[in-house]
Every structure is written in structure tokens, then in C-alpha cells.
TrEMBL record:
This is Thiosulfate dehydrogenase. InterPro entries: Cyt_c-like_dom, Cyt_c-like_dom_sf, Cytochrome_c-type_DH. GO terms for molecular function: electron transfer activity; heme binding; metal ion binding; thiosulfate dehydrogenase activity. It comes from Hymenobacter luteus. PANTHER family: BLL4482 PROTEIN-RELATED, CYTOCHROME C DOMAIN-CONTAINING PROTEIN. Residues 307-317 have a biased composition (Basic and acidic residues).
Amino acid sequence: METPSDSVARLSRLVRILLLLTSALVLVVVVVVLTQLYGPASPPPLAPVAEANEGPPPSGSYHRPATAAPDTATLPHTAAGRQIRYGRDLIAHTARYLGPQGSVAHLTNGMNCQNCHLDAGTKGFANNYLAVAATYPKLRARSGTMVTTQMRVNDCLERSLNGRPLADSSREMRAIVAYINWLGHDIPKGKKVYGTGFTKLAYLPRAADPVIGKAVFAAKCQSCHGPHGEGKQLADGREYQYPPLWGKHSYNDGAGLYRVTNLARYVKAAMPFGAAFDHPQLTDAQAWDVAAFVNSQPRPHLNTPRDWPDISKKPVDHPFGPYTDSFSERQHKYGPYQPIEDAHPQLAKAK
């Protein structure tokens, strides 16, 4: 039976325990308050709006001009000269000849080749055509076959312009090839010149983020391409001043620009309108993220069962399996890409 002295002792122990717990709680609260007031600041979370509004990076990343294209004013007033001029016009105003209201045929979605190959294929690091004549025909891993200039043109018509091919013997195909060959007539066979292809762009240490890219698009791109990526047509409605970036009138998912690395490198060197590879307007991260956003939007699908017959040669960012590795389709599409490239050193050499 508990005596009064036992009860007092037990109560005293409980009081001491409560006092210790209260002291510990007070100490924790004091530490938290002092840390918030005087401790090191925690890094802010990744903020889409903040990244979207970052200013342009310093210009002058490259210290030499892209190789200049020949001047069309030097073309002779001959049948050959007229053919080359017609080829240039087909590149610059494809929809007027081959679009939904085309004067020659109705083959394409209303975009112009020039919408992706800026300045009729002559702007540096903006899908420049200058090296085509010197490097085609060539073996392409995507088809696993030797590809001619005519086949490459039709690839663009069927993929980037979501249309149908031209016959090799058609007046239009012969004119386009004549123009492309004329652009590169001074470049030795097998050589590339500075300014062709895409600019170099370091991989992000993280995946490209469509959520951040949406904010970048709103801040940097939608004034030309529209809030829904619908583009802006000229007053006559026959071609686009600024092309649609997604939707039924844009490039399909078989196009080269549907690969996030290609689109990121393209927009870094050429977008928004007025940017150039040596005077960029986007940071590297903005270019990656906006490319991820644009290529996460709906667009036409193209069945490509013959693409990449050797799947070991698929680029690290090809968004459709199967693959020879265990990385997911999502990582192949958005990254991070360096772990994939590390697993495929032969692809790094082929870039």
C-alpha cells in the first residue's frame, strides 16, 4: 500500500520530468528562431517565373562570323539562274506553291521551309544549308541507307511540313536542289563550314523542365507564336509570318526538331526573332526548358517503322523506344542526357 511519502516522491519525479520536457521544447524553439534570424539562407526553389524573365547572356560567345552565303544578286539572268531563284523562292515561300492554297500543288501544312531554315537556309547555326551539297549523298543512321539531297528534301516535306513528297523529276524538286547546290558550290566535297548545323549547347545537369519552359514561352515566345503556339499568318492567309509550334499545322513527331536537343540548340542560336548565335537572347537553361515545353505539346503523329534500323545508333534524346539501354523514354526525351551518353560513348563521337 502506497504511503503519503511515496505519493509525494512520485509526484516530485513527474514534476521534474515535465520541467525537463518543457525546457527541451523551449530550447528547440529558441534554436529554430535563432537559425531563421541569423543562420545561412536556404537556397530558393527553382522558380519558373524568375528563370523565364532572366535577361540575355553576354554576347560574343563566338568570335568569328558564320560562313557567308553567296549573293543571289550575282546569279546570271539565264535559265540556270532563274531555276536557282525559283528554288530559293520555294524555300522562302513554300506554302504559296505547295501549301493548302498552293499554286502548284497542295502537299504541305502551310509552313515554309524558311520557318525552320532561316533566311532561306543561309543564317548561321539556324539549319543552314551551306554544307548540304558537300556532304550529300551520305549514309544516315536514321534510315540506315544512303540518302540523296532529294530524299533529304522530301524528309523535310513529310516530317517538318507534315506533308507529302515531291517527285524527283518535278520542276520544283529540281529547282530546290539547284538552289541548295548553288549555295554550297564553293565548299569542297566532304567538308563542313563554320555556321552549319546547330550551335553547341552543354547538357543540363537535370532534366529539361516543361513547366519552367511554359513560363519561358510566355515571356519570350508567345508574342510572335501566339499563346497557344498557333503562329501568326500573313494578311492573305497563305503562309505564316511566325510558324505554329504545335497543333495540327506544325511539324509532326517524326521531325528532327521534335528531338529536344535539336530544338534547344536551334532556339539558343536563333530565337526569339532577332537573336543570333553570337548574340543570343536566351540562357542555356531557358533554351532547354522551352524546347521541352514546346515538344511536350500535341502535334501530328507520323508512323516511322523504318527509322533507326540499328537501334544502337539512336541519339540519346530520341523520344521513342526500343533502346539498347535501361533508361526510360521520358529520360531519353527530357534528360538528364549525360548518363545516357556515358552509357553510349559511340554516340558522343557521332554528334
